[in-house]
Structure formats: C-alpha cells, structure tokens
C-alpha cells in the first residue's frame, strides 16, 4: 500500500524517497542578437554536442565545446517572406544522420539541411495545432 502524503505536501512518496537530481549548466547560447528564443533542441543522436535554437526568424546551429562554457555558432539560416515571419517550434529529424531539422511558423512547415543551412522543403497551409497528422 502506498504511503500517504501529508496535506499540503507537493512531494509524492516516490519523490521523497529518491535522491534529488541536480541540473548542470553546460553552456550559454548567446543568441540575443538574433531575437527572442522560441525553442532549443539537442541533437537526438551522436555525442550531444550540437543544439539548434529558434529565435524570431533565425534558425541557429550551435556547437557545444567541451572546454568552454560558451557555445560556438556553427551555422544560421533566416526565414524569409512577406510580413513578420517567426519560428514557433522545431525538431531534429533522427534520420539521415541528424542532418535535417523541421520547423513550424504560422501555417507552414519547413525542412532545413543542417550541412548547408538551407531550406529543402516547405509545406504551406499545414494543418493547425491540435489536428492529428499521420506519419
């Protein structure tokens, strides 16, 4: 039978019994010059030393150096078009040796090649959030 928590306690019995895990700051991503950051994602495979961040209309590829607390900007691409386009989310594709990133902005989904930092596809008028899409 699970232990009862005291009223007003925010810990579950499992939380109280396990050792606390601490987070470690690996580095700073200095993307302030590119705008407000909407998303940060680690490369899903490999050595974990590459990160993407989306800031306003910029896709930024970062290289995390072991010997430094500052990440190095390895590449960037800009979202171009009419109006004030901004990235809202992005994800690495675990396929093709993690050389592709998919991003969302307004009603478009775009694919990017991280080797050349160029757009490789665009799906205009993509389904709105909350709509189920088959893979």
Automatic annotation (TrEMBL):
UniProt record, GO biological process: protein ubiquitination
Coiled-coil positions: none
Signal peptide range: none
Superkingdom of the source species: Eukaryota
Name of protein: EARP complex and GARP complex interacting protein 1
Taxonomic lineage: Eukaryota, Metazoa, Chordata, Craniata, Vertebrata
């Amino acid at each position: 039978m699970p232990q009862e928590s005291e009223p007003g306690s925010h810990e579950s019995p499992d939380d109280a019994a396990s050792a606390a895990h601490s987070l470690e700051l690996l580095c700073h991503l200095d993307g302030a010059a590119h705008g407000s950051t909407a998303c940060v994602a680690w490369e899903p495979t490999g050595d974990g030393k590459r990160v993407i961040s989306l800031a306003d209309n910029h896709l930024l590829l970062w290289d995390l150096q072991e010997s430094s607390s500052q990440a190095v900007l390895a590449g960037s691409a800009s979202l171009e078009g009419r109006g004030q386009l901004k990235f809202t989310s992005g994800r690495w594709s675990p396929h093709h040796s993690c050389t592709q990133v998919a991003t969302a902005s307004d009603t478009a989904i775009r694919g990017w090649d991280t080797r050349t930092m160029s757009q490789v596809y665009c799906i205009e008028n993509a389904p709105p959030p909350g709509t189920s899409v088959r893979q």
